[in-house]
Amino acid sequence: MWDRNQMAERAAQELQDGWYVNLGIGIPTLVSNYIPEGIEVTLQSENGMLGMGPFPISGDEDADLINAGKQTITELPQTAYFDSAQSFGMIRGGKIAMAILGAMEVAENGDLANWMIPGKLVKGMGGAMDLVAGVGRVVVVMDHTNKHGVSKVLKECTLPLTGKSVVDRIITNLGVLDVVNGGLKIVETADGVTADELRAATEATII
Question: pLDDT (tens digit, 9 = 90+) per residue, 115-168?
C-alpha cells in the first residue's frame, strides 16, 4: 500500500503546467512537496494567498503566515495577498482549475462528505462547499478504509454531504479510481495491491 507521502506524490501527478490549484487540509497539503519537475502551478489558499511556497524549515516559521489549515508556510516572490471575498470570488468564478481535498466518505456517483461527523463539535464547512462547486476538477486523497477496516468508498455517503456528484478521481492508499457512469473504474493499484484486493476493500460498485 501507499503511505501518506506516496499518496501525495501520486496526487501531484494530477497537476498540469500553468494551473491554479487549491490544496485541502491533511494529506493534500503534502502535494506541494512533490510537484513534478518542469511543472509550474500556482497554489491558492482560501484564507487569502495566491502563490504558496513550501513548508518552512525548522526555525524559519512565521506564525503570521499560514494556510487554510493553520499550518505555517512560506511565500514566493510572486505571492499575492487578498481578503476572503476576493479569494472566494476566484473559486466561485471558476478561476481555480483543480482542488485536491481530503474526505471522510466518497460515493460511487461522486458525492463527497468531508466536513463533519454528526455529534462532534465542528467550526463549520469552511471553503469546501465553494471549492467543490466552483473548481474545474476535484481529486480526493484519503485512506481507503477507516481504522476498523470499513470501506470509505461507498455506494452512498452516510455523513452530511459537502457536494453532490462533484468528485472526479479518488486516490487512496490502495489505488486510483475514477468516477464514471455506473460506478467507479480502477485506474491503477498501489504498490503490492491487486485489483481483486482493491475491489474487496470497496463497497462502491466497480465496473
Answer: 988 888 777 777 899 999 999 999 999 999 999 999 999 999 999 999 999 999
Residue 195 CB: number of other CB atoms within 10 A? 12
**Rounded distance between C-alpha atoms, residue 22 and residue 79, angstroms:** 14
Q: Is 188 helix (H, G, I), strand (E, B) or coil?
A: strand
Q: Is 46 tagged catalytic?
A: yes
AA identity, residue 10? R
Q: Residue 133 half-sphere exposure, CB side, CA atoms within 13 Å? A: 11
Total-model pTM: 0.94
C-alpha distance across the termini of the chain, in Å: 22
Q: In degrees rounded to 5, what are phi and psi of residue 88?
A: -75, -20
CB 9 within 8 A of CB 32: no
Residue 137: its H or E element: strand 137-141
What grid cell was written down for 203?
Answer: 463497497
Greatest alpha-carbon span in the chain: 51
Amino acid of residue 28: P
Q: Which of 9, 14, 37, 46 is catalytic?
A: 46
